[in-house]
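User: Could you write out the 3D structure of this protein bound to flavin-adenine dinucleotide? I've included everything you need below.
Assistant: Certainly. Input first, then the structure.
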Amino acid sequence: MKTQLLKDEILEAMSLKRQYGVFNTNMMFLLDDKDKKLVEEFQGLCLEKEEQINGIHGHNNEDHYNWFEWAGKHGLINRTNNYPHRDDLEIGMKAEILRQWTMDIFDPQFSLSLGASVLCINPIAHHHEGRETLLKDLRDLLDGKKIGCICITEPERGSDAVNMLVKAEKADDGGLILNGIKCYNTNSPVADIAAVYAVYNTDDPRGTMIQGISHADWNKGFKAERIGIPSVPKVKIGKTIFEDAHIPPDYITGDDGKGYEILFEGLVPERIGIAALNVGQMWGAFSLAALYSTVRQQFGEKILRHQAVGMSVLAKYHGRLTDITMALLRLAETYDTKKEELAGIPATMNPLVAMASQMKEYSSLLYHELAYECMHAMGGTGVTDQTKMPHYQGVSEIAEVVGGTRNVQLLIGSRTINTMIKMI
Ligand SMILES: Cc1cc2nc3c(=O)[nH]c(=O)nc-3n(C[C@H](O)[C@H](O)[C@H](O)COP(=O)(O)OP(=O)(O)OC[C@H]3O[C@@H](n4cnc5c(N)ncnc54)[C@H](O)[C@@H]3O)c2cc1C
């Protein structure tokens, strides 16, 4: 922080430990003992790290890409995919959400970067087919030794992502040659490994889409330039350029239209993941405002006691946040129990696709509203660099667009209603 305005005891009242305390109190009746133990384990690791980075100074100033290895070592990058080299970790969507919430409260921009690396992990975990090259990538990404990114969006193809223009051609060695530009790829300027989509024929993207894995060190035709996104200044987001970029045969995860299936298969966990990120970061913003409201006094009273703060902001958003937290936990349980059963069902018929989109759309708007309200419930303190509130508020500004805007989610929703009526 540039200059400390608040007394030490007020800053201490908003420590990470106390933020986790607010979260844990709310989870008391929502989680079983096993889940609570897992949360405690995750939180213990983050509290150690908090001390090591010197709290807010580290969150404001350290390069969080240097924390990947620490997170990977402790299984804090991903909990939905099995680790090929470790079997001592709790795996599943529920475990993933609890991991995510812990990281979101700890450092919202770091959590966003971890999430983008997970989007590179997912297709490799499901489509390595025992190949050692890809298994090594999977181990390195899960361990945080390598940073990943996903390249779907293009300068001219955003919401209409399927109709992509980046071209793939078959190479003489059975691999691929890629040409074109992707953009908004979280982590790509620092990523070691990129999962990338392209098409052989732009007139038939569904039938000809590929997915491949590219490495920054050996792929000379792969480069990325950082673009500026002021809301998340610590996250490196890129314009990613493919110029005769070669993907060897061993690194093709989906060929001849299989890339399209992988793209859609990835959207459900991606959108549940973003919804989880929104909810976790809402707990971060809410906990800071709630803690501050009990230590800050104006007109001779805690600001919590002023109805405009205590009722119109804190109680109102506490209720909405609790509701969406319960809904997301239920969705995670449904995903864990039904995902195999629903795996082969087309996207338009798969209820998980609709539920993931609905949850992503609603949680993004709620996060934006809640972060703004909680920030201003803290007055001037809310906008200073003395707490992580501006970090939560920053991520809340991009929550809508990451993973597809509200209109794309609502488009999926309207198609779901059509299918639902046909099923009656
Ligand atoms: C911070 C950040 C991180 C990102 N990370 C990644 C990443 O890691 N990898 C990646 O590949 N991409 C990433 N993206 C890209 C993101 O997925 C796209 O920005 C998003 O899908 C929207 O595309 P667009 O920006 O081109 O907007 P456009 O598609 O141009 O949309 C502009 C407006 O038109 C509306 N619109 C578009 N189509 C329709 C329609 N059919 N009906 C109604 N309204 C419509 C949209 O809702 C929006 O309001 C990221 C973006 C940001 C900002």
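The first strand starts at residue 148 and ends at 151.
User: Perfect, thank you.
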